[in-house]
Amino acid sequence: MAPYDIYFLLKGALVTLALSAGAIGAGSCIGAITGWIRTLKIVKNNFFLWGLTSIYVDTIRGTPLLLQVYFVYYAIPPLTGMKTSVFFAGVASLALFQGAYVSEVVRAGIDAIGKTQWWAGHSLGMGYFQVQRYIILPQAVRIMIPPFIGVCLGVIKDTSLVSTIGFIELAFSAGIIGRRTLEPMPPWIMAAVIYFIICFPISKFSQKLESRLRKKG
Fold first, then answer.
1. pLDDT tens per residue, range 68-111
2. Other Cβ atoms within 10 Å of 40 Cβ, number
3. Can you tell me the distance from the alpha carbon of 179 to that of 188, in angstroms, rounded to the nearest whole number?
């Protein structure tokens, strides 16, 4: 591969990182709030409130991400009258996708902590948020880390789907080079290596963090 081609791939990798960072940041916030809401008794015991959160979570988890990317980019502007850039559409669709999966990670993590932990906190005179902060969340985070990191890694790799609306990220850059040089294998192998370089340290960091939290527990 020519130096220019390598530079073009690295530029696409930076775009992928920017897209991933925006989507993971926004999606994690959406997922954390939605997941926490779905653990509240008032929501669990109310068919209407539970249904509202389920519409978002089940719709996103039950439809292909590619379809969601198309919907945000092609359907939202005519429906709302707002112009949508390719970058915004990519970040928004990936963030909504991440948020739906993270919400279930958060909900399952909090619900996995037994009711006796809540009772213990209340017996010490703690309020709801104090029990969450000092008793429930420190335990729940250990449960959440592996699936949360798995969702994040999936989002990084799924950024390639945004190329279908003309976003020039890492995978699309590899495709452009392959079509131009008529040698598709070298750029795709290089792209795979870059994806691995991005994802592998995150995976190892999550394992070390999980091990450290387990030792503290």
1. 999 999 998 888 888 888 888 999 999 999 999 999 999 999 99
2. 15
3. 11
d(CA 127, CA 23): 33
Residue 188 confidence class, pLDDT cut points 50, 70, 90: very high
Count the neighbouring beta carbons within 10 Å of the beta carbon of residue 212. Answer: 11
Give burial (CB, 10 Å; 0-12/13-18/19+) of 28.
buried
Q: Give me the phi and psi of 85, to 5 degrees please.
A: -75, 160
pTM of the model: 0.88
The CA angle 158-160-164, to the nearest 5 degrees, is 120
One DSSP character per residue, 2-56 reads: -HHHHHHHHHHHHHHHHHHHHHHHHHHHHHHHHHHHTTSHHHHT-HHHHHHHHHH
**In which element (H, E) is residue 203 found?**
helix 185-216
